[in-house]
Design a protein that fits this description.
Aspartate Aminotransferase, domain 1; 2 domains; 12 strands; 382 residues; alpha/beta
Length: 382
């Protein structure tokens, strides 16, 4: 028998309380029992999105469904949008925009770079008719955290331009003040900071975004936001919902409320710092730049002469610790340790121990125990 540890940036571990709730007997989704749970979940989502003004919508979909819905509901074919991309999921937003016939102003960066808000300001000045700015807050593929607060202050000055924020690995892990920062659409997925299995996607829609919806002519049916808004007003859903996941979501959101969102974000920051310092103590180099490191995932360069894919495989097969490899051009060149959602100090200690044993077995030279010691210092406030 081998105990398994899931240390990826999604899916993430699910608390026992949430799992047990999902194992309860099925209830019908057109009943007062379900409506009560559903509405409590909607209010809980508004809490984690830090919004009182925006509508929170919930779909049976992956995060990509929320991405596509944002495009389909906000624009017309031929509209100009500014897409900022410094990772795989920024690339995805560009691809979805192009599929729907939008004119994309492409602000492309290296995956190791942070999006520069000044570039967005310049692009908007050059394209004052742009209808949207799209940016990833927490880029899962690179661990880079982009400054969406600064971007919000810029886009706020353009009343016909909506700001779409992919915070799929941000919500619940990093600060994301939807109302205060002027973020029009913010999205997340259930298998990240919400501590659920995959299958739900949620987003918020501001008043400005609803105005964009009114002029949008792109085709939409399942992801038509107005269907969801009108049904939420009746305390239900337009289509058959993922009942068990929503029951689990209610419990997960209660857990976040009990911890307090501020404390949840602080916990993630501590776990991220311990992971970073632990890896650096082993002589490893971090992938994301110092000015843009998020708290959801820590990507690390594979040391020279070591097989990056072997690191991931050995940690999983020999030690039971599943981390993520690099994506696209960075496959085999980096590995990624996730720490968003249901994680604590000893998950990091265990992961660093498995990483140390794996690296030692692959012939990498370092001081044994240094990573664990560095992480412990963070947890002990040293």
């Amino acid at each position: 028998m081998k105990k398994k540890y899931l240390m990826t940036p999604g899916p993430t571990p699910v608390p026992a309380e949430v799992l047990l709730t999902q194992a309860a007997p099925m209830i019908h989704h057109r009943t007062p029992d379900f409506s009560a749970v559903f509405m409590e979940a909607i209010e809980g989502l508004k809490y984690v999105f830090q919004t009182e003004k925006a509508d929170a919508l919930l779909f049976a979909a992956s995060g990509t469904g929320a991405m596509e819905s944002a495009i389909a509901n906000c624009f017309c074919a031929g509209d100009t949008v500014i897409v900022c991309r410094n990772g795989k999921f920024g690339d995805r937003m560009k691809q979805i925009s192009e599929v729907y016939g939008l004119n994309v102003i492409d602000l492309a960066y290296e995956w190791t770079q942070v999006v520069n808000p000044a570039d967005i300001a310049a692009a908007l000045k050059e394209n004052p008719g742009a209808r949207g700015v799209i940016v990833t807050q927490s880029e899962t593929s690179s661990g880079v955290l982009n400054d969406v607060q600064a971007v919000g202050a810029i886009v706020r000055e353009y009343p016909e331009c909506v700001l779409i924020v992919d915070s799929i690995t941000g919500i619940g892990a990093v600060e994301c003040k939807t109302d205060e920062w002027g973020l029009d659409i913010v999205m997340t997925g259930s298998q990240k900071g919400l501590m659920l299995p995959p299958g739900l996607a949620a987003l918020t829609v501001s008043e400005k975004a609803w105005r964009a919806y009114e002029r949008s002519t792109l085709p939409k049916y399942y992801f038509d936001w107005m269907k969801y808004k009108k049904n939420i007003e009746k305390q239900t859903t337009p289509f058959t919902p993922a009942v068990s996941l929503i029951l689990g979501l209610q419990v997960a959101l209660k857990m976040i409320r009990e911890e307090g969102l501020e404390n949840t974000i602080a916990r993630h920051s501590m776990l991220a710092e311990a992971t970073r310092r632990g890896c650096e103590a082993l002589g490893l180099k971090l992938f994301a730049p110092p000015e843009g490191r998020g708290s959801a995932v820590t990507p690390v360069w594979v040391p020279e002469g070591v097989d990056g894919k072997a690191i991931v495989k050995i940690m999983k097969d020999k030690y039971g610790v599943t981390i993520a490899g690099g994506q696209d051009d960075y496959a085999g060149r980096i590995f990624r340790v996730g720490h968003l959602g249901y994680f604590g100090e000893f998950d990091i200690i265990t992961t660093l121990a498995a990483l140390e044993m794996t690296l030692a077995g692959l012939g990498y030279q370092f001081e044994r125990g240094a990573g664990i010691k560095a992480a412990e210092a963070v947890f002990m406030g040293e």
